[in-house]
Specification:
The complex is a heterodimer of chains A (596) and B (415). In chain A, 23% of the residues lie in helices and 16% in strands. Chain A has helices at 68-74, 126-141, 157-166, 201-208, 240-245, 308-312, 315-318, 338-352, 368-380, 410-419, 427-436, 458-461, 475-479, 519-529, 539-546, 551-554; strands at residues 51-55, 58-62, 98-101, 108-109, 120-122, 183-184, 189-191, 215-218, 225-228, 251-253, 266-271, 280-286, 289-295, 326-327, 334-335, 358-362, 386-389, 423-425, 441-445, 465-470, 482-485, 494-497, 503-506. Chain A has an eight-stranded mixed sheet with strand order 15-14-21-20-19-16-17-18, with helices on both faces. Chain A has a five-stranded mixed sheet with strand order 2-1-5-3-4, sandwiched between helices. In chain A, strands 6-7-10 form a three-stranded antiparallel sheet. In chain B, strand 4 (346-354) and strand 5 (357-365) form a beta hairpin. In chain B, helix 3 (96-111) runs antiparallel to helix 4 (117-145) and helix 5 (149-170) runs antiparallel to helix 6. The chains are: A alpha/beta (596), B mainly alpha (415). Chains A and B meet through helix 3 of A and helix 12 and helix 13 of B.
Chain lengths: 596, 415
């Protein structure tokens, strides 16, 4: 409580002002009257500095102010909730988390009530169960029969809680209230007002986290609904997060809508490559296709959020990929096998190696492992001393997460170049060098085009040799003499260093597309072709062999830093049967061992 | 080296036996190894019997199984509890209903629910008509393989009536997949009990014919009596159950020992043999057909209309109008189909009396919608392991009726 002057009769108690006499000042000096017999003093805290209470018969010790949901979680009691979110303010409007406490004759919302000393909480008594059932019945009363066509089905808290806490038939007589079923709120989000349970998580998120109050509650009673303010739209760069935190299928991602059923998708912990922030994400994939990114919690980097640009940045993983190796420039280009491409590139590179006309261009989109292997190869086999930086062109940043640098690993590239003793120079320097004829041959790691507009430059057309390892088609792949398809970060293990210098590991979702290979593997094959003895079998191997030379990477524990392969420990939660997975499907390519 | 074994004699050194003294030649004393099966018509299912013969006497018999292995137990771990049900059809495929109901019974016990009264009656009737079918198949096969084709035809005619009734009930002749956790997926078809009674009359007559054809038939009795004998102690040691154990005189029937469904409420006798030979096993089966008949008739008398499935949407699917018309129904349906019945964590052994004996289920649940472990104690497996004891020292010809009378079913032995 702050020191406001208009305190209620109970407020401010138990906070004696330091040094004040126990009597009222200005007393006449007579013996003070005996204090009136009040209620018994509460016992001293069992654990000083902490609050100790009992939840479902188990003792819980937590910091003062901890709410009951978080406290109950410590002892394995799950209190259901819809509107509560640990990173948002408390609304306590869904009433799903009502629990029985010893201090109140009525049920109290667990999200809003902090635990207190000696309190006894019951989360699964008969009264609580009745309340949970009634709340669910009420919430479901006007919910449309939409599971079959709803994107949220399979990851919906209504379904989960209904099966766990209600499982009773409908008692609705008459019809449900109809509202707008497809209200387009903004470029990324569409709202189904009938499905909405009015928990206001989205409104609170936009107000408190994104600081762009674009959503509000409108109407009253049965007509109450979430909407944007008249004449405006949900245009925030963080609108996608409202879809994530929506506990039901009301807010939907227009990019993902109707594209996949949630239970068909597998997830892999990864890192967003949309900008240099490196938000932690889950890659949701099916087969060899990425369907969406979802933010993964990381207190240091992105909390529970990510921006819309990053959310949509997965698309390059699927579209416009370089499919096959090619030999020959422009019109002479012909498809080749990987081995032919490597042999051809090695022959051409050997002819010009250890000469100043040969330069290297590296993209900060590549992972640390890719850069380590490729740059070490360029230094040792090609005699390169300078690395020109490619990558994606800079864009705009914003007030929360998105940064102006659209490349996830510029920090890593800087570190590695320094560690290997290579000088870093800009792309414009490269153009000057090509124009001046100082550079005639180029070994390109990552074909991203770092300047606008995206079109081939005469300077590159003048070059004599372009060996390009690229993920997507672009100006450089059009001009390449040898083109080697590279795989993306979701197709391999690896790590990025974000703009704050935090090194983050990502896990493989699925194997590289046919004929594409990670940069490090191309480099390894080229090195072998050129007679080097270096050989790598995995990105882990690359890191183990080469990271010692880079100061910042040398202390990084590659294995330990990897996020766990499974989101939920234990046996795969994937539903059985009719799930579209091939038989014997293993989530991460590694057989999961259990029960040895 | 100085004393080479006799068998190492170079075949080239052996002088050809003169034609004149052919009849006086010694019979070869070398033991012969003979393979029966896996694709031998008398080796039901696909079991290979490696038999070592001394003349015509079996010295050693070694059944080799696995040709019908499907990975039943492991497959169950990859499906929901409900999805295991079709796999159970393929255990003892001659009496699939008994496997279905036995499995469901075990799951229900693990959950701790009691199925509706009518479902108990229907499960009993279904089990008993399939017990008749199983015994008819066994007897028919014995008759056929001992040369009595008429008995086989009578048996199969009777069995065909049962298959027709089962088809009406479940929609399938063989792979019934009938019943669900918590009861049955559908009630009896109209007039079904009447047609069962009519079929039973016909079956009674047909079994009487078979009885008359075989039981006092000299050829049949000579092949059956005293062959394939096993003592009660040995049978118990091998883990025999069902008719094969009762033919030894051991009074053990799960229906009496650990009554389930309605077996406490119906009167029936457990026939016992005395000698534990093929003939007693045959007689026990003939008598069990008659007792099953009795049970079915009593059950049909006692059955009352009512629900056949539990009304608990955590266990049983909601009715379709609820699924299509209410959000509660569609969500309950979705959860049950996609994630399965959330069977509480725990383990259980439960058994029912199947046609060949105690069909036991050891189930472990980790609290998810899928079984953590399904182990099935198939009655035929234990019985097949005793076949060597039953035929060793006897004639090769005795192997056939012995193998028939134990009624080994490949599907449940090899799983």
């Amino acid at each position: 409580m702050s020191e406001g002057s208009n305190k209620g009769p109970l407020e401010g108690q138990g906070k004696p002002i330091a040094g004040a006499p126990t009597n009222a000042p200005g007393s006449t000096g007579t013996k003070p009257p005996p204090p009136p017999p009040g209620p018994a003093k509460p016992p001293p805290p069992k654990n000083p500095g902490f609050v100790t209470c009992t939840i479902d018969g188990k003792e819980v010790v937590a910091k003062p102010g901890t709410n009951m949901i978080e406290a109950a979680r410590q002892v394995g009691s799950d209190i259901p909730y819809y509107c509560y979110h640990p990173r948002l303010s408390i609304a306590a409007n869904c009433r799903m988390c009502l629990v029985e406490v010893s201090s109140s004759p009525k049920l109290v919302p667990a999200c809003q009530t902090a635990i207190s000393e000696g309190l006894s909480v019951k989360t699964n008594s008969g009264v609580v169960k009745d309340s949970q059932r009634s709340v669910l019945e009420f919430i479901l009363l006007n919910h449309p029969v939409d599971c079959a066509i709803c994107d949220q089905a399979g990851e919906c808290k209504l379904q989960d809680y209904y099966a766990r806490y209600d499982f009773m038939p409908s008692r609705l007589e008459g019809s449900k209230i109809l509202k707008n079923k497809r209200k387009v709120l903004g470029p990324l989000v569409v709202l189904d007002q009938e499905r909405c349970i009015l928990c206001t998580r989205c409104v609170r998120f936009m107000n408190e986290v994104a600081h762009e109050p674009q959503l509000g509650m409108f109407g009253r009673g049965s007509g109450e609904r979430i909407d944007v303010f008249p004449g405006s739209e949900l245009s925030s760069n963080y609108s996608g997060n409202t879809v994530d935190i929506c506990p039901v299928g009301a807010l939907l991602n227009r990019d993902f809508r109707f594209r996949a059923r949630a239970w068909f998708l597998s997830e892999a912990p990864s890192v967003c490559t949309g900008c240099s922030r490196g938000c932690n994400v889950f890659v949701d994939f099916f087969g060899q296709e990425t369907y969406r990114y979802r933010p993964r919690e990381n207190e240091q980097v992105n909390k529970s959020w990510m921006c819309d640009r990053g959310r949509l940045s997965y698309k390059y993983v699927n579209k416009d990929r370089v499919q096959t190796p090619q030999i020959g420039r422009s019109d002479d280009a012909r498809e080749a096998t990987g081995a032919e491409a490597v042999a051809f590139a090695a022959r051409k590179l050997k002819a010009i190696s250890h000469r100043p006309e040969l330069a290297v261009m590296a993209s900060p989109l590549a992972s640390n492992e890719d850069l380590l292997a490729c740059l070490a190869f360029a230094r040792d086999a090609l005699g390169a001393r300078t690395v020109y930086v490619g990558g994606r062109p800079p864009g705009e940043g914003d007030h929360l997460l998105m940064t102006a640098d659209k490349n996830p690993n510029r920090t890593g590239l800087t570190w590695i170049a320094a560690g290997l003793g290579l000088a870093l120079r800009s792309f414009s320097d490269l153009i000057d060098a090509l124009d001046a004829g100082a550079v005639k041959a180029l070994y390109v790691i990552g074909g991203e085009w770092p300047i606008e507009p995206v079109q081939p430059l005469a300077a590159f057309q003048r070059s004599e040799l372009l060996v390009v390892q690229a993920i997507n088609r672009g100006p450089l792949t059009e001009l390449a003499d040898v083109l080697m398809p590279a795989s993306t970060h979701v197709e391999d293990e690896g790590s990025f260093a974000n703009l704050d210098g935090i090194i983050q590991r990502f896990r493989r979702a699925y194997p590289p597309l046919p004929e594409s290979q990670p940069h490090w593997m191309w480099a390894s094959r080229l090195a072998k072709e050129l007679g080097l003895t270096t050989a790598y079998s995995s990105p882990r191997d690359v890191f183990r062999q080469l990271s010692a030379g880079v100061k910042e990477l040398s202390t990084f524990d590659w294995d330990k830093a990897a996020p766990p392969a499974q989101h939920v420990p234990g046996i795969s939660p994937a539903p059985a049967g009719a799930d579209g997975r091939p038989p014997g499907h293993r989530e991460w390519g590694v057989p999961r061992v259990r029960g040895i | 080296m100085s004393n080479p074994p006799i068998s190492s004699k170079n075949p080239a050194d052996v002088q050809p036996v003169p034609a004149a003294s052919e009849l006086e030649a010694h019979l070869p004393s070398k033991r012969m190894e003979l393979n029966l099966g896996p694709s031998h018509p008398a080796m039901h299912g696909t079991v290979r019997m490696k038999v070592e013969l001394d003349g015509e006497t079996i010295v050693h018999a070694d059944p080799e199984i696995g040709f019908l292995h499907r990975g039943f137990q492991k497959s169950c771990e990859n499906g929901t509890w409900t999805q295991c049900l079709p796999y159970t059809d393929r255990l003892n495929y001659v009496s699939a209903l008994m496997n279905n109901f036995g499995f469901l019974n075990a799951v229900e016990k693990l959950i701790g629910v009691e199925i509706p009264e009518r479902a108990k009656f229907i499960r009993t009737i279904g089990s008993e008509i399939h017990r008749i079918a199983d015994h008819l198949t066994c007897i028919g096969a014995i008759g056929l393989e001992l040369g009595g084709f008429s008995a086989f035809l009578y048996c199969i005619e009777a069995r065909e009536l049962i298959v027709d009734r089962v088809t009406e009930l479940t929609g399938a002749r063989l792979t019934t997949t009938f019943g669900r956790v918590g009861g049955l997926n559908r009630d009896l078809p109209p007039q079904w009990l009447e047609s069962v009674l009519k079929s039973l009359e016909k079956i009674e007559w047909l079994v009487g014919e078979v009885d008359a054809l075989l039981t006092n038939n000299r050829i049949f009795v000579d092949r059956m009596k005293g062959t394939g004998r096993i003592s009660a102690e040995d049978a118990l040691d091998f883990g025999f159950t069902g008719p094969c154990l009762r033919a030894c005189g051991v009074n053990y029937d799960v229906r009496k020992a650990l009554p389930y469904w309605i077996y406490e409420r119906v009167a029936f006798d457990v026939p016992l043999g005395r000698n534990g030979d093929n003939f007693d096993r045959y007689l026990v089966r003939i008598e069990e057909i008659k007792q099953s008949n009795r049970i079915i008739r009593q059950a049909i008398e006692m059955i009352k209309p009512g629900p056949v499935l539990l009304d608990d949407w955590r266990i049983a699917l909601p009715p379709k109008p609820e699924v299509y018309g209410t959000i509660e129904g569609v969500m309950a349906h979705f959860k049950l189909i996609m994630e399965g019945i959330q069977v509480p964590a725990g383990e259980i052994y439960d058994c029912t009396e199947a046609a060949n004996g105690e069909l036991g289920w050891y189930l472990v649940s980790d609290g998810s919608g899928k079984p953590y472990k399904v182990h099935v104690r198939a009655p035929s497996f234990a019985i097949l392991s005793g076949i060597a004891r039953m035929v060793e020292g006897r004639l090769l010809a005795d192997l056939i009726p012995t193998f028939d009378s134990i009624n080994m079913i490949g599907g449940e032995v090899e799983q």
